[in-house]
Amino acid sequence: MRQAGRYMAAFREFSDKYPFRMRSETPDIAIELSMQPYRAFKTDGIIFFSDILTPLPGMGIEFDMVKGKGPVIANPVRSVEHLKQLVPLSDPASRLPFIHTILSSLRREADSAGVTLLGFIGTPWTLAAYSMEGKSDKDCKETKKIMMHNPALLHSFLDFLTEQLIVYAGYQIESGAQVIQLFDSWAHHLSPAQFSEFSLPYMERVTRALKAKYPHVPVIVHANGGTGKLELMSNTSADVVGLDWAVDMKDARKQLGAGVKVQGNVDPMILFGPEDKIRAEVERCLLAAGPRGHILNVGHGVVQGTPESAVGVFCEVARQSGALHAKAAANGARQPALV
Amino acid sequence: MRQAGRYMAAFREFSDKYPFRMRSETPDIAIELSMQPYRAFKTDGIIFFSDILTPLPGMGIEFDMVKGKGPVIANPVRSVEHLKQLVPLSDPASRLPFIHTILSSLRREADSAGVTLLGFIGTPWTLAAYSMEGKSDKDCKETKKIMMHNPALLHSFLDFLTEQLIVYAGYQIESGAQVIQLFDSWAHHLSPAQFSEFSLPYMERVTRALKAKYPHVPVIVHANGGTGKLELMSNTSADVVGLDWAVDMKDARKQLGAGVKVQGNVDPMILFGPEDKIRAEVERCLLAAGPRGHILNVGHGVVQGTPESAVGVFCEVARQSGALHAKAAANGARQPALV
Question: Could you list the residue range(s) of the whole structural domain that residue A130 is in?
């Protein structure tokens, strides 16, 4: 979680100087910001600095990041007429050329470091809701009004976005990304029934298309607020399901079934605690998840103000997970079988 | 959900004129605002107009409602010294005399209308977090820092609040309230493990104390964002567990077990939809919950801007629930047993 972060002083030097879109669309800056966390913490992967909204201007939907407000879409998509004016992302290399430059360069860095390059996209539901809402709204009011009064319009938009996101994720892979993460950041606005109708099938269509064309590329899906939706996700075509921190790891494993790998689910606020508490909480998560099929991660983005040293502790404990699991297995073996 | 509401024009006439604390602490106004939804929708209950923070000034914690920001506590409780300065609510009738005036008067109204009067309180965790945080914060940062660095301070505060809330809820009952609801409005900030340590035991202590002293008074507990915590709540001493709308009703029933009654869990944004959609969604919730042990409700407060007529439709469908369940039972009986 968090390809780069406001919690890093090196990052803030850039964010104080350049607006978000300039940072994410200027290869030199985006590459530098992508590399910062790797250089600081020697993570196993590099996540490219970008945003789930980055492909939208390539489809004719302009957005901007406004300080303290988040992304703002000045001209939200709320009618069939508007939908018809959108342009398919048929030629991403000409519409979003910086993506190729950034990812191919990062791939060289990743290869020479022996680590993995991760790309990511938003899900159709999340991008549709952002584009219809225009800005963050705790009730997702405008999108839900359309969902209630004109579900066909929402479905048409979801269908359009699904096709574009398949193209866009493919472009990321062909530019160098070795893993694709799908973020359903606004899944928390949906009841399980709404999730089944407006998000899951489209997310699944993207995943299946990617797995068909790029079977060697692992796909991770993460639904924010997905705790009540895990059973629905147990049939996912993705390789990994991300967990926020509202669910108990063992319950999540049970609901998803043995075949699904998981990512998560440490409370990011733990990183404000003393070192021994961070260590204890991360170890608790590792042991609850078990030695296989788990990518250690926080359950939501690293919070602004998090001490950089705490992220270091988190990564250090992660690197010792093999020893931790081996010790747990040895302790388990020494215990009487029926206790 | 929502004892009174910003969605009602009659309510806004008062909220435009008088600040929140004046409205909730002046008996004539609080009584009028409590009665408005009953008069408009002929609900089965009357919920007194108040706030979960209302008892805090009686313990020495002053708060104010700031437009667009919500409650603000100018002097947050973050030290042992501050905690020692707080005053137990041993004599609520002198500290919060308006509560008795409001509830005893409303009880006469409820009795003459043949409906039930509901009181409510916040849980120890939620009031502690409000008092430590000072204002709404999406990461609950200040409280969680204390949770990480000085959990003993948080536990002392929770212990103090638990005792005061038992007194305060008892005072509500003795003033006329016939049901007590406990709102754990900030439960969503807690992981299941944190909930087990910092909220559930204190909420349970309040509930058990009330059930011991007032066995005839039903207790409803509602944890916002409680979807991943339902199994933990299955041993509750409360009569009813409230559900937000992030969980599927049948899953919630399964996790809570057959002995626990439920309240909820319609998405409040449904009320922005056309009448037939509202009707269909409410009926779906009623049928999923089954004919017994369910209080129909929205899963979170009614959203500002909700048409008053939509609340009317919601209540009308609720009144027809007997006929709906009877019809479902008859249809079920006509189906072959093994299908």
Answer: 4-242
Query: Could you tell me if residue B294 is inside a domain?
Result: no
CB B314 within 8 A of CB B282: yes
Chain B: closest CA distance from residue A112 (Å): 38
- Per the structure, the count of domains in chain B is 1
Hey, is the C-beta of B269 within 8 angstroms of any chain A C-beta?
Answer: yes
Task: Note the pLDDT of residue B103.
Answer: 98
pLDDT of residue B5: 77
Task: Measure the CA–CA gap between A206 and A237, rounded to whole angstroms.
Answer: 10
Query: Has residue B331 been placed in a domain?
Result: no
Q: Which ipTM value was assigned to this complex?
A: 0.93
- Please give the Cα distance from B87 to B69 (Å, whole number): 27
Cβ–Cβ of A148/B192 closer than 8 Å? no
Environment class of A26 (CB within 10 Å of its CB; exposed 0-12, middle 13-18, buried 19+): middle
- Which ranges constitute the DSSP H helices of chain A? 9-17, 20-25, 27-41, 80-85, 92-95, 97-113, 124-133, 141-149, 151-175, 192-198, 200-213, 230-233, 249-256, 275-289, 308-319, 321-334
DSSP structure string for B216-239: TS-EEEEETT-GGGHHHHTT-SSS
DSSP letters, A190-204, are: S-HHHHHHHTHHHHH
> If 0-12 CB within 10 Å is exposed, 13-18 middle and 19+ buried, where does residue B151 land?
middle
Mean pLDDT of A149-173: 98
Q: In chain A, what residues touch B269 (CB-CB under 8 Å)?
A: 139-141, 144-145, 148
Residues B188/B125, Cβ–Cβ less than 8 Å: no
Beta strands in chain B (DSSP E): 45-47, 64-66, 70-72, 116-122, 179-184, 219-223, 240-242, 261-266, 294-298
Contact of B305 with chain A, judged by CB distance below 8 Å, is answered with yes
Residue that is written with structure tokens 């985006």 in the block: A30
Nearest-Cα distance to chain A for B41, in Å, is: 23
Rounded CA separation B54/B51 (Å): 5
Q: For tokens 């976005």, name the residue.
A: A161
- Note whether B247 contacts A: Cβ–Cβ < 8 A: yes
Q: Give the CATH number of the domain where residue A211 resides.
A: 3.20.20.210
Q: How far apart are CA B327 and CA B178, in angstroms?
A: 32
Collapsing DSSP to helix, strand or coil, B183 comes out as: strand
Considering the domain boundaries, does residue A19 fall inside one? yes
| Euclidean distance between CA atoms A35 and A77, whole angstroms | 35
Model confidence pLDDT, tens digit, residues B141-171: 999 999 999 999 999 999 999 999 999 999 9
Assigned domain for A333 exists: no
A188 neighbourhood in chain B, CB within 8 Å: 246
CA distance A125 to A97: 25
Nearest chain B residue to A301 by CA distance is B139
CB contact under 8 A, B140 and A269: yes
Write the single-letter amino acid at A325. Answer: H
Please count the other Cβ atoms lying within 10 Å of the Cβ belonging to residue B165: 26
Query: How many CB pairs below 8 A link A and B?
Result: 88
- Spatial distance between the Cα atoms of B150 and B254, rounded to a whole number of angstroms: 37
**A2 pLDDT exceeds 80?**
no
Does position A339 have pLDDT exceeding 70, yes or no?
no
pLDDT in tens, A42-93: 999 999 999 999 999 999 999 999 887 889 999 999 999 999 999 999 999 9
Q: Is the pLDDT of residue B337 over 70?
A: no
In Å, how far from its chain's centre is CA A54?
14
**Contact A270/B at CB under 8 A:** yes
